[in-house]
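Teaching note: in complex prediction, the entire set of molecules is handled at once rather than each chain in isolation. The prompt given to students was simply: 'Predict the structure of this complex.' The entities are:
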Amino acid sequence: MAKWGMIIDLDKCVGCQACSLACKSENNVPHGSPHEWKRHQDLYWHKVIAVTEGEYPTVNTQIIPMPCMHCEHPPCVNVCPAKATYQRGDGIVMQNFRRCIGCRYCIIACPYGSRNFNFKDQADEEYDRPDLPPDLDLSYVGHIGPWPYPRRTRGVVEKCTYCFHRIDQALEKGVDIGSPDGVVPACVEACPAEARFFGDLDDPESEVSRLLATRNSFKLREEMSTHPKTIYLPR
Amino acid sequence: MQLSFTPIKGTSRKYKVLVAVLAVLALTGIVAYMVSYLEGLRLWGINNSVSWGQLITVDIFFIGLSAGSLVVSSLVYVFGQERYKPIGRMAVFMGLLLMIGAMVCVLTDLGRPEKMWRLFMYGYLSNMKSMFAVNGIFYAGYIGLLVAYLAAALANSKLTKVIAPVAVLWAILVHMGTGAIFGFIETRGIMYSPLKPVEFISAAFASGLALVMLLSYVTLKLGKRPISKDMYVSLGRMLIVLIIVLVVLVVTDKLTHFYPPARESVLFLTQGPWSWIFWGMQVTLGYVIPLIILCHPKWGKTVKGIMIACLICVIGIFGERMGIIFPGLSQPLQYYPGEIEGVWGVRGGFPIMPAETLMTVGIFSLLGLMYVLGLKFLQLLPTAGSEGTADEGSEATAEQKALAAEGGTT
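The expected output is the structure of the full assembly:
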């Protein structure tokens, strides 16, 4: 079975946040008001952080886009009491909203802040998008995960899924995944700088494997031994 | 020594007012909960940084007090120390009430409380690798054991001798399991420690003993029951030992994490914006002042001094619980070395929100209500004048009222 991974080339990233926006619209992630943003109560499946080192004039700011790391040893899966968070065979760490009891233990265990709690019901006028994602609804036969829900429920924890609905659909149809004209997660597709790559880490022919073999790479917070599958190429 | 127990009459005006006030506060808490269930948890102070708030703080505080109360009761029912018998039943009752309160806290804290049964599916639908799910076994078994224990103690049954040791050992298990919920999370440096379960149980013993002493004293005093001064003085000595053990554990824990190069979390706890919790509440109120009072040649021998020490100690241990949750969760996660700009790098805030606070007050009041009603309907208090007493008898009324108010809400 494939082992999906994402590579983000920090040398190409311009910090435009197109990935964050694409994620929000693809996955129908609830919007947040400025008030909620201040209170840190809004949802982000994908975030972009800016890390500054030094002071002017010897200053260096690193822009780091952060989806879920989809760790091979995910601490969130260990701590979830309700089996709501689980790892699929292809390595994607999933969240089942139907099982989640909303204890928020996984938010505390996640070293990357990738998990967010849904604090409120969605307002109809704001983000009820039953049309999203486009070709997939609950009646779809190949649907194996909890997503997509046309509507969100509050009181559960949400997280990035590497757009698993796209992957599963592509596998069903036999479309190539990860190649330039193939299917990729929304954030990879949206990146104007082509700084993101998605593919099978186990497949030596894939673009991600080639990049890992030829370029220097690092993972975030390696000291936690979580073995993330979102890997960065340094600037 | 045969000691008989009788309930209080509960016909005085003061008693009725107390019950009414507690009932109204508890009702307010229930309404606050209903509103926040309908509106979503955005009404609370919790957010995606500090995702556990007041209710979890109160929860672990209660679990600790419950375990501590059981240990006090074990003096009577396991070790057969007859002189502590007047407060034995109260200690068991408090243990049960506090555990119920803790369960109310943890279940109302869930985002989807209607799915809480998943916690108790023991491996079928729950993940037994999670300390939370493991604690589901502990909590459920503990409440069952406590009910049996209380029933046996109230009936003066011989079974008490069998149930008591099991219940006390189970209480220790419950509290160590709760400590493990926090201690096993490597992500949060302030929580992460192999000592955490032991530290939790130690804090539980100290705070539980202090609470039982305080509440039983207030109850006996207001119920006009005999008060044995010797009993409280000897319990006070025991409290000294328990606090010292706790201090040793906390110092070991913090010093260990202070020593290696990765010391940000201890620095954040002791010098960061939340350091007032650690130094002001945990250290000063929890350890230093009670130890000074209890070790003082004069104050440590008077019931009044001991009670003040107990009150301060209970508040201080509450600070210790706060010191696990709030600094532990609001410390920013260092995703990448350097200074993270903007909202992702700031420390998490925790506003005091009305709905959550009302719920906290409501849960305290609910327990107080159940306690005062229990005094009326269960035979918890020793009969007046059944034993030789050394009543202090010279306390100011204002003092009593203050203690009663505290007792009522705790």
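Point out the following to students. Chain B is about 65% helix and 0% strand. The two ends of chain B are 31 Å apart (CA to CA).
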